[in-house]
Amino acid sequence: MTALLEARGLCKAYGALSVTDDLSMQVAAGELHAVIGPNGAGKTTLIAQLSGQLAPDRGSIRFGGRDVTRLDMPARLRLGLARSFQITTLMPAMTALENVALAVQGRSGSSFRFWRPVAAERALNEAAMACLEEVGMAGRAGRPAGAMSHGEKRQLELAVALACEPRLLLLDEPLAGTGPQEAEVLVALLARLKGRITMLLIEHDMEAVFALADRVSVLVYGRILASGAPEAIRQDPKVRAAYLGEEAG
Amino acid sequence: MANLFLLQLLNGAQFGILLFLVAAGLTLVFGIMDFINLAHGVLYMLGAYLMAMFALSTGSFWLGLALALGATLVVGLVLEWLVFRRLYDRPHLDQVLATFALMMILSEGVKILWGSAPLNVAMPELLSGSVPLAGPLRYPVYRIAIIVAGLATALGLWAMITRTRVGMLLRAGASNRPMVAALGTDISKFFMLVFALGAMLAGFAGALVSPVLSVDPGMGDQILILTFVVIVIGGVGSVKGAFAGALLVGITDTVGRIFGPIWLKMVMDPAAAAQAGRVLAPMLIYLLMAAILSWRPNGLFGRSTR
Amino acid sequence: MSRPAQRGMSGRAKAALALIALMALVPPLAALAGDPFLTVVASRMAVFAIAALSLDLILGFGALVSFGHAAYLGLGAYAVAVCARHGITDLFVQIAAGAAASALFALVSGAISLRTRGIYFIMITLAFGQMAYFFFVSLSAYGGDDGTTLAARSTVFGRPLLENDTVFFYVVLACLATAFGLLHRLAGSRFGRALAGTRESELRMQAIGFRPFRYRLAAYVISGMICSVAGVLLANQTEYVSPAYMAWTRSGELIVMLLLGGIGTLAGAMAGALATVALEELLAGWSEHWRLGFGLILLGVVLWSPAGLTGLIRRLLPEEGR
């Protein structure tokens, strides 16, 4: 099995505080790889570095066999590396359809077109509608993102990520802040996408992680403590001591 | 030539010191309250007018200076209480508009009270005359006094910022605003203090400069923009940066105006050099700002966030 | 697909067109009232409406508070003076010259300013505007601080059509209608949506493959070019060109116009410009210290409109759709 995404020796520190500490990991093509870890383990910082939002102090990131360490977010997206956000950054004044269509626009053709009404571009709208249908939001296409419920925003967040046609999707706590019913919808959605799109999932919801993941890595103090199949991770004494035990206690 | 250069260097330093006095308060207000104040230049102008008024009515420069300082402090407090404190939580656009309006009101008010004609302030006996500088060159005592007064103020500020509790809050506030709130300080009193201090410093600069410049309603506009350049170069919120930026701007501007044409003459014909020098000299500090910003977008001593 | 948002957009366009149509009635009404000065004031209103429209592109759609926009007004005005000095009096050539100079200045100053945000951006655009101001103050060939008087208004196809105030007014109005049309199309285009995206969330834009800087810079340049057209017309209206056109207080007035009318709507920019010029004329006719009254009104509006002007407008936006 070849790695689609590979981080080697990543280091990131803020002053004396080391947030990512010589971290190496691989995400194989086709798998759903979950990263879990206690609060402050450096999960969001890891996503930021993998996506190109933050530059690591040291180490390298390879994606699809290419060194992407020095590429910015738009350049990595062009290679097929997309991400979602933990804190929703949707465009509140735009409708759901417009939010997704903008993402479609980002990968199809130039945006330096000044005359034709974008709202009348059928190709954009159809592709965006397809993504909204995929996440079960087709009925909400005309609503402004700012006026949506939290669960709907999480679904829309996924639709926007899908519109980027990613080969690999970095998901930063897609279930954060959702109620049990909303979470159920989202978990079912991720299960449908699994296999079609490679995913790196960061999530606090253990039930969701162990239901979805092919492989789980445990991140503690900026390092990968253990990596393996969900059952193996669940049994791993190191992990139990460092993390699961904490949760239970 | 070397003498002329020394003379211009001193003039530049004196100008820079004045800029620093105006910029110090403004950069703190920017940094700590994330507040943009377009009316700050008017306080400088007000300081000069109050100085002119008090010096004339009391017949004493020193008494006038003391009264002008007290009056600008009061004006700062009143404006903070009346207007500024309602704006801290507003978007920058509202702050721009409100302080722009305030600037219009105050400068028009000054015109109504004192007229549009320039006023003059008499120099105190003690500080008139000049001292020998180098060889036949002499330098006015008053300008030296401005430099000394400015440096003393800078030193006092430095001591306050590094040694006192208020200074600690200032430093903390400029780099991390939520922290000041977390320290449980009475924020509104603290803001008022910073504001009044800034107003007084600007008024002090206006009062100091009134005997060497004619006091007119437009003087606040000009200094405001220069102060912005100083703050942008030095980095928002940094008093140290304001000091470095002010001296840099003061000296570049003064020396550039005199020596720009002279240096240009070495590489082009005199007539063209004179013309080019005249056009380029006033733009020099803006070019300097652009150069520094493309090198360090947050200024020389600015924090790197945002 | 018909959505309410699209109908809202065209509603706004209708308001703008109605405003332009109403303005077109001014010259006959002025003739009826026997007050030709009304046409002159209306010309001035239309000129500033163009400038405010151009500012709305970067401030309203891009959320970039530029405080140096009057520089482009000045560049357009000086394009007229410089061209006329060299025997070029054709309006279209002068507009092209002003737009070219503005594009260059906007490209260079924008490339530096747009690296910054917030208060920095405000101060830097202010400083660049001031730099342009001082450039023309020290240009003694064109009167320096005092400026220079134009011998005549520009010509159209070699004919002195603009000398007639009524014809001039309709030319300005045609320019305003064109500027509105262009900006309205632009706001609804791919570029317009991308620009609106940079306003809403810079991080999100990067995550979906956009580099916000490029769109902001392009908008900055387009905005400067359109504003320079207003400058060309302003010089023609007053038949006089001076650095005072690009004073920083003028940039402030442009922002005031935009804010009074409402940002990001185009129609609001036009209405704001009209209201501001009218208010200035009214107060100036009353007292030479009209700025005091203007300042007090402005301060009152900002302080006592419940959530501030921008807050008020922002609350209205989602309902109207976009």
Short summary:
With 306 residues, chain B is mainly α. Chain B is 74% helix and 3% strand.
Rg of chain A, rounded, reads 18 Å
CATH superfamily of the largest domain in chain A: P-loop containing nucleotide triphosphate hydrolases
Mean pLDDT of chain C: 89
Q: Element order, helices and strands of chain C?
A: HHHHHHEHHHHEHHHH
Unreliable stretches of chain C (pLDDT < 50, length at least 5) are 1-8, 306-311, 318-322
Report the biggest beta sheet of chain C as strand number plus sense, adding barrel if it closes: 2 strands, antiparallel
**If you consult CATH, what is the topology of the largest domain in chain A?**
Rossmann fold
Q: Low-confidence parts of chain A lasting 5 or more residues at pLDDT below 50?
A: none
State which percent range the strand residues of chain C make up: under 5%
Strand content of chain A: 15-25%
**Sheet with most strands of chain A:** 6 strands, mixed
What does this structure look like?
- The complex is a heterotrimer of chains A (249), B (306) and C (322).
- Chain A has 249 residues and is α/β, with parallel strands linked by helices.
- Chain A has helices spanning 43-51, 73-78, 96-107, 122-134, 150-163, 180-193, 206-212, 230-235, 237-248, and strands at residues 3-14, 17-28, 32-36, 58-63, 66-67, 81-83, 168-172, 198-202, 215-220, 223-228.
- In chain A, the strands form two sheets. In chain A, strands 6-7-8-3-9-10 form a six-stranded mixed β-sheet, with helices on both faces. In chain A, strands 2-1-4-5 form a four-stranded antiparallel β-sheet, with helices on one face.
- In chain A, helix 3 (96-107) packs parallel to helix 5.
- Chain B is mainly alpha-helical and 306 residues long.
- Chain B has one domain (11-131, 139-295): ABC transporter involved in vitamin B12 uptake, BtuC (Orthogonal Bundle).
- In chain B, 74% of the residues lie in helices and 3% in strands.
- Chain B contains twelve helices and two strands, in the order H-H-H-H-E-E-H-H-H-H-H-H-H-H.
- In chain B, a hairpin with a 2-residue loop joins strand 1 and strand 2 (137-140).
- In chain B, helix 1 packs across helix 9 and helix 2 (40-58) packs across helix 9.
- The model of chain B has no long low-confidence stretch (mean pLDDT 86).
- With 322 residues, chain C is mainly alpha-helical.
- Chain C has one domain (4-320): ABC transporter involved in vitamin B12 uptake, BtuC, CATH 1.10.3470.
- Helices cover 75% and strands 1% of the residues of chain C.
- Chain C is built from 14 helices and two strands; from the N terminus they run H-H-H-H-H-H-E-H-H-H-H-E-H-H-H-H.
- Chain C has helices spanning 4-24, 26-33, 37-59, 70-85, 91-113, 118-137, 165-187, 190-200, 202-207, 212-238, 248-261, 267-286, 290-304, 308-320; strands at residues 148-149, 240-241.
- A two-stranded antiparallel ribbon of chain C has the order 1-2.
- In chain C, helix 1 runs parallel beside helix 12, helix 11 (248-261) packs across helix 12 (267-286) and helix 12 packs across helix 13 (290-304).
- The model of chain C is unreliable at 1-8, 306-311 and 318-322 (pLDDT under 50).
- Chains in contact: A-C, B-C.
- The interface between A and C is large, with 44 and 32 residues.
